[in-house]
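Hi R.,

Here are the chain sequences for the assembly we discussed:
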Amino acid sequence: MSDDGSSELIRVVIADDEPDVRMLLRIQLQHEGFEIAGEAIDGHAAIEECTTAKPHVVVLDLLMPRLNGFEAIPKLRRQCPEVAIIAYTAVAGDFVRKEMARLRIPLLLKSGNVNALAAQIRELALRSA
Amino acid sequence: MDTGGEPTDAARALADVDAIRRRVVNVVGHALRTPVTTVAGMAAALESATDDDTRSMLIAGLSRNADRVESLLDELLVAAGVSTALPVGEPERVAVEPIVRDTWQSLEGPDGLAVDAPAAPFVRARAFERIVRMILDNALKYGDGNVAVRAEAIANGVRLEVESSGPVPSDEELAHACELLYRGEQAVMTSPGLGIGLAVARELARAEGGDVTLGRRGDNVVATVDLPG
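And here is the predicted structure of the full complex:
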């Protein structure tokens, strides 16, 4: 996967229960040149979207109702092993940091600036190319 | 007084206060971070947005999230018992059913809400709307979506009951549910909800001369709001 524009578009699923977060990420990531392959409001929908849309990366909020990000991760890894996961959360205490390190999932704090998230998406998509 | 190395009562009390302080800062930080970063992100995205539809969506989003920060701050202050954060205005006779149904719709509650509410409390309307919102939001978050609302006249006023089916908390959880930040820190960090909704509802009800309690009725949870009538 290269960034020269001639390669396949990097496809991303956004999973967050907050509509405004999903809207903002959609606008920001499209501006960065990614294709938004789907959106999900909870862990169940994230698994469904990743199974049908087969994105390169899922940006996964951790605190979601019904099935949260923590619970969705093992199911995503079993059902969609080719989809890279980025944990994207508002606050990460020791428990969250240790858990994501244990699972080897990149963890990013939600920020108004999307640069770090975009860079992480590109890195993960490159690894899986 | 030196007790030979054991922590004194004063030392334990200080440690408790420190733990509470850290917890409050953690939870408040968590609550505010999402809308604040959303505002920052939307403002930045607005600079580079070129089409009118995107710009309109972002401007509406900025306004919504700024309002949300203000509401969150108000709720935290109310839950902490800060009286200056309470709604202003004069008490009035408030019709329960339209407020319940409008709130349910705004929370995107499922069809099938049952409302039987002939009695009308005498309270500040804005306070009542917020109490109803907190209680219904709680029922939706922790129940399975089947909710029934009743309002009947009682000896000293009006009793509003919001009964919901779904997982029933333990007796201990029910007893503490209206306490500020009752949800354990790990629970706060792993699932939505801060543990302030019922505490806010209770403070608002108490400011009106009433109260909020949570109990069980068979396999259902019942939030009871007693208000002046």
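Strands of chain A lie at 11-15, 35-40, 57-60, 84-89, 107-109. The longest strand of chain A covers residues 35-40.

Let me know if anything looks off.

Best,
T.
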